[in-house]
Predict the 3D structure of the following.
Amino acid sequence: MQRIVAQARKELTQILRDRLALGLALVMPVALTALLGTSISLTVTDIPIVVQDLDQTPLSRQYVDAFRSSLTFRIAALPPATSPEAALTAGWARAALIIPEHFTREIRRGRLAEAQLLVDATDTNTARLTRGAATQVTGAFARQLGASRSVPAVRTATRLWFNPGREPRKFYGPGFFVLALSIFPPLLAALAMSREGEQKTILQVYASSISAHEFLLGKVLAGMTIGLLEWLLTLTFLLTFFGLRFAGDPTPLLAGSVLFLFCVVSFGALVGGAIPNQAAAIQAVALGGFLLAFLLSGLIFPVENIPPALAWISNLVQARYYIVVVRDAFLQGGGWPAVWWAVLAIGAIGLVYFGLAWRALRRMQVKA
Amino acid sequence: VSLIPSRRFRGRLWALALKELRQIRRDRRLTISLIVPPVLQILLFGFALDADVRDLRLGVVDESRTAESRELISAITENRTFRLAGAYATTAVLGEALGTGRLDVGVVVPADFARFLARGQPATVQVLLNAVNANTAQIAQGYVEGAVGSLNRRLGTARTPARARVELRTAFLYNPGLVYTWFTVSGVFGTLIILNGSLVSAATMIREKERGTVEQLLMTPASALEVVTAKIVPLFLLLMGMAGLALTVARLVFHVPFRGSLLLVLTACACCVLTGIGIGTFISTFARSAYQTLLISFFVNPPLAALSGAFTPIEAMPKWIQPLTHLNPIAHFATIARSVLVKGAGLDVVYPHLLVLALLASVLVGVSAWRFRTQLG
């Protein structure tokens, strides 16, 4: 035990002296969460649309005004002698609303009046949102016109749970918190480990009385200390700047976080132990920590949409489970009944990484 | 200095470039890192990134238990956005299932649903949405309301045939099938060029510095300009090869339509590759070892990739960030790639982006070459 603590203290001293790595460790998680958490969102609010009003009547203008007053759309001017398609191709509008001639006359006669919406579907998600919002605007406009005549048979009362304002940052903030924690703690651990291999100081370790698991535990403990510091800093940031609050029992988050840090630091130690070259170790962490956590964890894109051929990889990515725990703690508040399985999965993956790192260390010993 | 390079200049340049090429060829890790990660990344991104909203788990509390309520449920679940995941006895149980994440959407049909319909009074259906993911919630809400709206129209036309109706016909241009991979792959493309380009060039630039072979370069009769040019040219060719490979994957695996001029895309690729080399060289002039270049890349690359509009729309970013994306080469390249490949736009549309890209490339390569030269001297 004493040897483990001594090893951990030596590691911490070493990290404190590497200014670049330390700055990276303490500044980057907060910076990344702040920058990406606020700016990444799939939900466009000010979609620029152009209008071609071939009817030019008070009613058609009222229809255009309905679009103008919605939060989702912004009417962009269509220069004369430009076709709506050209505006879409040039990219200064995402959609074009075309109101046909006799629009008002058809409405007055009680016949079907059809407006047309051309949507730039290059960005398919925005295209879907555009269609949804435009249909809603049109529906409201039609109801307004026909209010005195009929009421819809079925009405929906939609209640948005857990994130009633549909604020993207409440979804992405916790997500990038997880991403930051899956990059930087393992990065430091991998660097500390591969440095021993690169500079052959591992030989001194072998010559000492410390055993492999004590050495590894010391490293992991030091990495987790730094990781907890990063965690605390970023968490404070989430609670203040992002305005997030614990929705329920915070103990699953606490347990999950400690296990997650153990898991990612062990992953870092494994990479560093297997690759005795600092530059190559960084690249491996970038691939394993950043890319997998970014792509296969449900950070931006739903995990359910990952094709089956890749889905099994996603099941091995620890960040996928931690994201569930974090989002539940801040938004859903389901507590242990909702996330116990995710916490267990993080712990299990962590143990596997630790075991593999231990084996890699033993192998290093044989090689050296 | 005359503008036309002398024969001696060309001879030396050729020799140096040949040296670089050989060095790269013998460095098997570099060659592998030029082929494997880009292909892997484009495949992974293309297959895994999918913002499609489908198969949302829908739970139902049907207190009405009538033909009408079942018609409503089937109207909501008839497209592939929602999947019926279970029926629940009470709203409380349904709420618990939503809270623990077993459901995404809940629909509660009141007991007097059919009676209200029969009387011609509006019947209200409660829809509970898990809005943790804002995007999914918005699209799901749109779908539910759309389904209920079309049910209303069906019921309405049966009851009151003549009334004012306004409808919106939506046509999706350029990607009518809403294939999401066209969007991601055309965005990933630029990210790939910039990230891998900067990493590879930083690695080759730093190597001379790290191993102290800069001294040997200084001893040759070649000028610093020649040394830098000879370093850039082979890298440029290799990275263009990588870009070609990525384009092939985009065409053959993901069937991205190549509607516009391929030459235009390749020109943009060339500018983008040069920008990537510029960024890599620039980073390498600040670092003392390969380890440091990679750490600095960690500061630069994630924001550059994420704030480019390659994966998420720029319009969805905060207002103060949006102007910054004009400085991001990936953003310009993504616009060009999408406009030309998917929309079939020509030079007349994309020239501002191409100009900015060329400008960024020349500034970055110029500044980093200058910094490299001062370090040599």
In short: Residues 70 and 119 of chain A are 17 Å apart (CA to CA). The first strand of chain A starts at residue 47 and ends at 53. Chain A touches chain B through 113 residues (CB under 8 Å).
